[in-house]
Amino acid sequence: MVDFGYDISNFFDIQPEYGTLDDFRNLLTKAKELGLKIILDFVPNHSSTENEWFKKSVNRERGYEDYYVWSNGKVDEKGQRQPPSNWLSGFRGSAWQWNDQRQQYYLHQFAVQQADLNYRNPDVVEQMKRVLRYWLDMGVDGFRIDAATLLFEAKPDENGIYPDEEVSGLTDDKEDRNYLKMEKVDIQPESIDMIYQWRKVMDDYQRIHGGDTRVLLIETYAPIWYTMQMYGNSTTKGAELPFNFNLITEVDTGFKAKDVQKAVDDWLTKMPAGGTANWVIGNHDRRRAASRYGIRNTDAMNMLVMLLPGASVTYQGEELGMTDGKISWEDTVDPAACNSNKDIFEKYTRDPTRTPFQWSAEKNAGFSDGPKTWLPLAEDYKTVNVEMESQADKSHLKIYKELVQLRKSSKTLQQGSYKYKALSDGVFVLKRYLAGEETLLYVANYGEASSSANVLDNFDVTLPSLMNVKISSLDSKKYAGIPVNLKEVTLEAGEALVLGTK
C-alpha cells in the first residue's frame, strides 16, 4: 500500500483492507446477478519489493535471478559507484535503487518499493499470463492494464550499462521525470507485442470456456502512432480499447470548441478500420473533469462522451459533477507528491482528484463510518452527492442517467454514423444518424458568454429545421419536448442539448 494498490505483494490474493478472496467471489456472484461485469486493474510492470518473487531474486534463488531488471551500475572517474543510466522515476529522483544484499541496482519506474519486472525473461512473461488466467478462472470479465507502455526498456550493453536519456528541455528540475525525454524506458516496440500476447490469452480462454468477450483496456499515455498499434495489426489482434486520453491531454482549462474537434479528429481519423473508439474525460491521475473544464461544462462533457461513437468511460464522481478537493501538505498521501516538498507538492499531487466519493451530506459524506476518511472530503460534499442529486427535480446525476438510458435504447448511438464540427470558439455540434432510426444532434456552448449558431446552414443542410429537446444541461431553460430552430440555436455559457427528430 505504498502506492495504494499499485505495489502488489501477491498477484493471487486480495489486500486485507478490502476483504478476502471469498468476499471477492461473492462480489462476482452478486454482480452477475445484476448483469454487471467486473474488470480488474492489472499492474504488470512491477511488483512490490515485499513480493516473494523480489525477495527470491535478491537472494538469486534459482529461476528468480533475472525476474527483475538488475545491473551492477558503473564506476565514475573517482571510483565511485553510479547508477547504470540517468533514468528518472515517475515519483522523482533516480529510477535505480542500490540493493545492499544483492550488491546490484534494480530499476523502479515509480516508488522505490515498486521494482520493475524483467519482461525479457520468458519465465516472467509466463508468470504474468498465469496471473491473468487465475483471475479469469475466478470469473472476472477483463482487465485494465496499468502503465502498459513501460513494460520494456532499452537493452543494456555487454557490460550491463543502459543508454542515457537526452535532456528534454521541458523543465530545469533535474529530479522531475520530464527533465529527460524518457524514450529509452517508454514506448518500446516489445511492449506492443506483449499486449498482443495477452489478447491471445483472453481469446484462447473465451474459445475454451465460452461466454462473452473478456476485454482488455490499456492505459497508454503515448504518441498516437504508438497507441494505435495497441489495437492490433492486419495479422494480430490487440486490445479492444487502448484508452483515449485526448480529451484530457488536448483539452484543458479555457478550452475552445476547435480543441474538442482536434481531440476527436486525432482519434477517429487515425483509428484502424474495425476498431472501437473510446472517450475519457477524467481519471485518478488528473484533475477532475469539472475542475478542468469548468463546473458549467459538466453536463456538456458528459453528453459529449456519451454521444460520440464507441465506448464511454466515466471516472467516479463525474456523474455528480464532483470537483477537486483541497489537500494540504500535512494531509498529502500520494507518493508522487510526498517525494517532493511543501513548496512544490501541489504540482505533483493526485490527491485532489481522489477524495472520497460523495454519497450523502451525512458524516464522511456517507463514504465511511470511521472517525475520518483517508483523505479530507471535497468542500462541496453537502450539496454535490448522490442522495441530494437523486432527490432533486433535475441534477447532473439525473442527466447522466438519462444519457445512459439513451445509449441503451438508441440504435443510432450504437450503430450509427457521425459528423461533427466546431462552429465557433464556443459552439460544437455532433450529429449521429442511422437509416430508419431517429437522428440525434448534440450542440454545446463551451464558451464563457452566450452564443448563437446557424446549425442548418453552417453544419448540415440535411437536418430538419426543427428538432426537439431530449436532454438539456442543468441550468438550461430548454426542457424536454421543446422544439429548437436549427437556423438560430442560442445557447448560454455551458449550455448543452441533445436534440432528436422524434
Helix content: 25-40%
> What does the radius of gyration come to?
25 Å
Strand order of the largest sheet: 14-15-16-21-18-19
Largest sheet: 6 strands, antiparallel
Mean pLDDT: 96
State the separation between the terminal residues, measured CA to CA: 52 Å
Number of helices: 15
- Give the percentage of residues in beta strands: 15-25%
Alpha-beta content class? alpha+beta
The total of beta strands comes to 21
Residue stretches low in confidence (pLDDT < 50, at least 5 long) are none
Shape: globular
List the helices and strands and how they pair.
Elements: H1 21-33, E1 39-42, E2 46-48, H2 52-58, E3 70-71, E4 74-75, E5 81-82, E6 96-99, E7 104-107, E8 114-116, H3 122-138, E9 142-145, H4 189-209, E10 215-218, H5 224-227, E11 241-242, H6 246-249, H7 257-268, E12 278-280, H8 289-293, H9 298-307, E13 311-313, H10 335-338, H11 345-348, H12 386-391, H13 396-409, H14 411-415, E14 417-422, E15 427-433, E16 440-445, E17 451-453, H15 455-458, E18 466-472, E19 483-485, E20 489-491, E21 496-500
Parallel strand pairs: 1-9, 9-10, 10-11, 12-13
Antiparallel strand pairs: 2-8, 3-7, 4-5, 6-7, 14-15, 15-16, 16-21, 17-20, 18-19, 18-21
Helix pairs in contact: 3-4, 9-13
